[in-house]
Amino acid sequence: MAEPGRKRDQQPTARGGAGGAKAAATTVPDVHAILPPLSQNPHAVRDTPEKVLEVAIGREVRAFRRKLGITVADLAAATGLSLGMLSKIENGITSPSLTTLQVLSRALGVPVTAFFRRYEEERSAVFVKAGEGLEIERRGTRAGHQYNLLGHVGAKASGVVVEPYLITLSETSDVFPTFQHEGMEFLYMLEGEVVYRHGSNLFRMLPGDSLFFDADAPHGPEELTRLPIRYLSIISYPQGGGG
């Protein structure tokens, strides 16, 4: 297979049509031009434990109320609490007394302990030593594509599942540029050289290069240029999705 003649600082190229037509350059948007300012502060810290508990209780009260299909006014009538107090509780502004929680639990038909479930939920972390990732076969795995799962945390309240893999391609590996699955995928090249397809675009990836894309479009290695090839693949999709 002819090697696409793209230097590292060039844009990716799309295949030409039948008969070896010359590949046409495609325009890839500047990521800085299309992204809005990010609102999340990566250096932020949580509120005090007391404040976090109030927020957790408020979220649960609101969730149980909405599950019953009742309004704040309906809950106020059932509990004798004022609309203002219920609003403060649901928004995590005030810390309800045990008596208030008991009144709410009876009105919502749940035990008092149900209001604390998110606060007490364990936050998991997975540590994997070098070379100890679990080798698995994902559904649709192609010959010679080695997948090492680097960790897995069960889906939590976020509703998002994330799967990090170390993928290795060798002399026995097939090219397969038509993978498709739900969610988003991020690739980070560690070793070797590969021409990777996403939709109609081809990307020559060398160590240090990355690619982030919608995984619903056909994608995968188009040309194994320099072996062995290793890259990190992080796939995320909604809880209950995948495949």
Low-confidence stretches: 1-26
Structural class: alpha+beta
Helix content percent band: 10-25%
Mean pLDDT: 79
| Relative strand content | 25-35%
Annotation field: number of helices = 6
Terminal CA distance: 30 Å
The shape, in one word, is: elongated
Alpha-carbon Rg, integer:
25 Å
Main sheet makeup: 7 strands, antiparallel
Q: List SSEs in N-to-C order.
A: EEHHHHHHEEEEEEE
Briefly characterize the structure.
Helix content is 23%, strand content 28%. It has six helices and nine strands.
Explain what you see.
The chain is 23% helix and 28% strand. It is α+β, with helices and mostly antiparallel strands and 243 residues long. A hairpin with a 2-residue loop joins β6 (184-198) and β7 (201-205). The longest helix is centred in the first third of the chain and has 20 residues, at 49-68. It is elongated.
